[in-house]
Amino acid sequence: MHKTLVVAWREFRHTAMTKAFLIGAIIMPLLMMGLFIIVMPLMMEANTTPLTGTVAIIAPVDVIEEFQSRIESNENPNAQLIDQLPDVVTQDPLASAMLNQPIQNNTNIVLQPSTVENIETLKDDVRDGKVAALIVVPDTLLGKFASDSDEQLEVLIPSSFSPNHTDLLSSAVSKSVVDVRLRRLGHEPSAMHAMVKRPRVAATRLANDGGEKADNEAARRIIPMAFMMLLWIATFTSGNYLLTTTIEEKGNKVMEVLLSAVSPLQLLGGKILGQAGVSLIMLLMYGGAAMAGLVTFALLDLIPVSHLLYLVAYFTMAYFMIASIMAAVGSAVTELRDAQSLIGPIMIILIIPLALWPVLSEHPNGLVATITSFTPPLIPFVMILRITASTEAIAAWQILLSMAIGFIAVLGMIWACARVFRIGVLMQGKPPSFLQLLRWIKQG
Question: Is beta strand 52-58 parallel, antiparallel or unpaired with respect to 133-136?
């Protein structure tokens, strides 16, 4: 056991203590955490430099008065956009938190009414910084059939003008024009806006046990995919490391030196355990970055603790399945390109959960989901997707059966890998076919 642990530490050290791994697996997730914890809250505060100065406006008097009141009301310029977005976006907690943040404009502007005759002079004043902006509202936009007009509102600004301030002025003046149109037709704008405002839809799922739970469609689609991709990244990254290091050591004759000190099974066990530490770091770092994002937006309640426990269990299953496959293939070939012919068909099978993601997330208790839940090596990826996507708890017997089949398959795959590894690790020359690998398993 001591020799196995020594090999495991060597494998872990040679992979995890390299610059490439530190940047990809440590620094990048830390930067993501910093983005979520520090930068995103600052961005969501939406505090911008106050808009000050003189704003020239060429428009009818009633438009100017309406525009003045809107600027003073400090209205969120995103309000109209939010109202036009589909419910699946606006009812999602994350999107709602970002869109409905209060906008602190702190405007302190002076309106300067003017006429069309002075427009060229005012443009020069905007360029010179004497006037903060120039707004032009053609009279034709206020008529009864204004929608047939090709003319547009104009907001003329200097090159250094803030995009937030541009949105503020554009939103305020366009809404002012609409309200003035309504008033000229004898309607009260606030009543008309209330009449055409879309009502929000509250979808609630009624459970068989009599309980009720608000439905979150966006979270129900995104979170399952995030769990499966986290599992995929953590296991396949370390699996690829295991494949390449095994091939390199075999090609450089390092394997022969190692086998003079340890047995093939000790070497295999050490390599798999060492890369398990690498995979665990990937899972913790990228999972931690995702959790930091949920904490930042106060959405941590979207992920129950039970889902995290299932993630750990199925991660263990997935890693040892992938690691045994990669170690077996790596020991059987001497060059990376030879490994592709053996890994290719296996990868086609392993990407089935990704291809079936829309079906599995939409029908987590359907026939396809149930069958693939008991099919190694798809079990860990399909089950974590089903558990996180289902609005009702997956039957306990299915979870237990999938774990039983999965871990039995892990033992079988490790046993087969050990037989292939023992024969192939010292073999050179032409790479074996699948039939030859099966013979090695029987002979080993």
Answer: parallel
3-class state of residue 375 by DSSP: coil
pLDDT per residue rounded down to tens, the chain (444 residues): 888 999 899 889 888 888 888 887 778 878 877 776 676 666 555 555 778 889 999 999 999 999 998 888 766 555 555 555 555 444 555 555 545 554 455 678 889 999 888 899 999 999 998 999 999 998 888 876 555 556 788 999 998 888 888 888 998 999 999 999 889 888 888 888 888 877 777 777 676 666 666 666 666 778 888 899 999 999 998 999 999 999 988 878 888 888 888 888 899 999 999 999 999 999 998 888 888 777 776 677 778 889 999 999 999 999 999 999 999 999 888 888 888 888 888 889 889 998 988 888 888 889 999 999 999 999 999 999 999 988 778 899 999 999 999 999 999 999 999 999 988 888 877 888 888 888 888 876
Structural domains of the chain, with CATH:
2-37+218-443 (no CATH), 51-201 (3.40.190)
Closest CA to 14 of 328, 168, 238, 335: 238
Residues with Cβ within 8 Å of 41's Cβ and at least 6 positions away in sequence, in order, are 296
